[in-house]
């Protein structure tokens, strides 16, 4: 077991420009209208492609069938929570302190209470970008995807910062 080293992460998340914030807020408006369905699609793809991530969820950790997962109230509830957290970030992009505090809470809860490996945040953000660009191709152009990738990098930076703060011991990422 090794400690997460601060040197592994940049000193700060790359800030978004005003134009980039506007792009994120515009595209998110279309996504958030269908937030539960999109969230469920994202989580199902995440759990199908990375089944080791299911270990943190008692209700569906043994489910293999995506349709069965889709009916899980625990999965639907978590999908809403994920989408609402991203919504809070998007709505507060003008307020870096608020974004930082929201993501610190998410990171600390996942580190201390749920003991979730931090790498799953990076994997989940990649899955989310995939689903968004497939489900909303008219809005998620190459330029928009680049801006969202930048946002997801910032989200990951904040969340892993919270892990470091609580003294998280990283287990090797070979678990995936």
TrEMBL record:
Pfam family membership, one: Globin
EC number, UniProt record: 1.15.1.1
Primary site of residence: cytoplasm
Keyword Transport among UniProt keywords: yes
Superkingdom of this protein's organism: Eukaryota
Catalytic activity: 2 superoxide + 2 H(+) = H2O2 + O2; Fe(III)-heme b-[protein] + nitric oxide + H2O = Fe(II)-heme b-[protein] + nitrite + 2 H(+); Fe(II)-heme b-[protein] + nitric oxide + O2 = Fe(III)-heme b-[protein] + nitrate; H2O2 + AH2 = A + 2 H2O
Domain Globin: 15-164
Record protein name field: superoxide dismutase
Source species of the chain: Seriola lalandi dorsalis
Lineage of origin: Eukaryota, Metazoa, Chordata, Craniata, Vertebrata
